[in-house]
From TrEMBL, chain A:
Organism the protein comes from: Antribacter soli
Gene3D superfamilies: Naphthalene 1,2-dioxygenase Alpha Subunit, Chain A, domain 1, Rieske [2Fe-2S] iron-sulphur domain
Protein name: Aromatic ring-hydroxylating dioxygenase subunit alpha
Gene Ontology molecular function terms on file: 2 iron, 2 sulfur cluster binding; dioxygenase activity; metal ion binding; monooxygenase activity; oxidoreductase activity, acting on paired donors, with incorporation or reduction of molecular oxygen
PROSITE patterns recorded: RIESKE
Domain Rieske: start-end pairs: 22-125
Automatic annotation (TrEMBL), chain B:
A Gene Ontology molecular function term of the record: 2 iron, 2 sulfur cluster binding
Protein name: PDR/VanB family oxidoreductase
2Fe-2S ferredoxin-type domain: residues covered: 237-334
Entry superkingdom: Bacteria
Record-annotated FAD-binding FR-type domain positions: 7-108
PROSITE patterns hit by this protein: 2FE2S_FER_1 (PS00197), 2FE2S_FER_2 (PS51085), FAD_FR (PS51384)
PANTHER family for this protein: BLR2392 PROTEIN, NADH OXIDOREDUCTASE HCR
Cofactor: FAD
Species this chain originates from: Antribacter soli
InterPro entries in the record: 2Fe-2S_ferredoxin-like_sf, 2Fe-2S_ferredoxin-type, 2Fe2S_fd_BS, Beta-grasp_dom_sf, FAD-bd_FR_type, FNR_nucleotide-bd, MRET, OxRdtase_FAD/NAD-bd
Record lineage: Bacteria, Bacillati, Actinomycetota, Actinomycetes, Micrococcales
Amino acid sequence: MADLMPSGKVTAKIFPHPLNAWYAVAWDHEVTGKALMSRTVAGRPMALYRTRDGRPVALADACWHRLAPLSMGKLVGDDEVQCPYHGLRYNSAGRCTAMPAQETVNPSAMVPSYPTVERYRYVWVWPGDSTVADPDLIPDMHQMDHPEWAGDGLTIHAPCNYQLILDNLMDLTHEEFVHGSSIGQEELSESEFRTRLEHDGSVTVERWMLDVEPPPFWRKNIRDRFPDFEGRVDRWQIIHYYAPSTICIDVGVAPAGTGAPEGDRSHGVNGYVMNTITPETDRTSHYFWAFMRNYRLDSQLITTQLRESVRNVFAEDEAMLAAQQAAIDANPDHEFYSLNIDAGGMWVRRILDRMLEAEDRAPVRSAARSAVGSAP
Amino acid sequence: MTTSAQPDWSTGRVLATAPVAADVQRITIQRPARGRAAPGSHLDVRVPVGDTTDVRSYSIVESDDDGSQLTISVLRVPQSRGGSAFMHTLVPGDELPVTQPLQNFPLSVAAPRHVLLAGGIGITAVAAMAQALRRAGADYTLVYAGRSRERMAYLDELAGLHGDRLVVHIDAEQTPLDVAELVGSIGRHPLSGATELYMCGPIRLMDAVRRAWESAALPLVNLRYETFGSSGWFQPEEFVVTIPQRAVEATVRSDETMLEALTRAGIDLMYDCRKGECGLCLLDVDAVDGALDHRDVFLSTTQKADGRTISTCVSRVVAREGSPNGPRVSLTLP
């Protein structure tokens, strides 16, 4: 019999983050050639800027000399940063190009320059081994800037471990309890769902709620496209997870019985909830989200309305995640236990665990859960 | 990626040894895993020298994924103070104190074009860089120069890995490296201003490249090299250093530094890197009998030619040809 993975490890409460991975560090518009900004990704503070030719750069945010934050410095020349403290300069490859009060530059002096790629309206960084940073590994978020899709989003600075957000998005049963006034409905926890690991390594959780009353959010959306719509709908949520921490959720409603489950969505409305979660520290995360739609693309009103309603929905998640992290920290002797609804989140944990194993950074196995029969 | 500056010593065990070229021994050492060793990193090992021990630095040629098995290659040098001779006696099962991989010569994959230049045993420092650049799909050329084929470690292996990207120059085969042509070709390339040249080899080679680089007006910051402070223009000789202010006279043996000799003589000097990089240990030169052998990278070419200051952690004094006196230098404390 094959060795089974110890469950205490996969259900670690504070999940470590892979370093050899692309993470969104900022929206494209946040990184400029006018001023430096500071942001921490996977525990690594970065100073972000653009070169004169527009290329995004992420340098380690600590001068080689005495570790003063470069993000407090200024941009000089075509692609250089000047340390705010003693004026050392670095180019976009991280090489020190100038030192004060000497005629030479110490050849050892450099700061890490993290690989960056600009794609899907985000700037992505690779905080790990730069020699294996392959841009093809950036998760597919093409709806973000595809001409057939429109929408916008924001960033939440979430006070919790990034895996708690992935758990939240991989199981939408919580909508019934957390988002009762907007998208929640009791059919969520009554309907069946299927969870599967795909050949490409992604995970899908698919849930259909057939012939249900549309909740307020979806009643508004379908009436934006079909103003005369009345009645019941078939509602879908198809969650796609791409390692390490991107979740794109295909959501929508169509008039009940018009063929949406069979593939004809033409009578309904379709959106994509785009989520990419960047661990900042073990207990804080940058949660980048957007809501994209494929109807009435030219309406800025709808773009703004959708962004604002999703913002309100996600504020409810943020409050829950913050409270959950606080309870985790306040109850160090208690463990996580799983329910049937956690299948998606557990696949995510297993995939992350394998990535961490490959980096030799697997989560510490929980003593309480790994000891046989020791449940409190 | 392990790039640490502070040495963390542990016991290394020799797993395998094999000759890979004339006087070059390949040695694989097992040590606690700390993640894959980054290209350009080296190991410090503690070796017996006479009745004491000393530290030697060897570039890591190969690392396994978790950095628990690290391969170095050691050239036995005739003027060895005992370090390389000792390394050549190692057999599988032997143990010796080693550090984790230390990084003074980091590769930046971010540069748009890379030229790696190895002279002789210098191949040990750039072999892993070439491998990393190949893996990253980067634009690179590996230039490997040596005196003769049998003295050049890893030649066949590198040819297999890098194909056309490997350019070989061999003195004995009348295909010596032409430094002016190499640097000229970099200067003529459209990416000349952004091409990084990483070099490791004898100081005469590195100095020739540096001078060609300067005269081609290429950005000095793109010329990358590592200094272990171990190779000068001249063989190390014993010399005398005096500090008249303190009435101190100390003999600097051929296997120690001025900094060490002066410290032993009771002078409290400031220093940090001990590699000739930071400039903290500079002292003013009063008078010299012989020639200064500047081995640091802190002073500029002009400052070295002036000869008014010297880096006590790496630089030396050698006898001037035909002079009846032994080499001697008189220094002033600040």
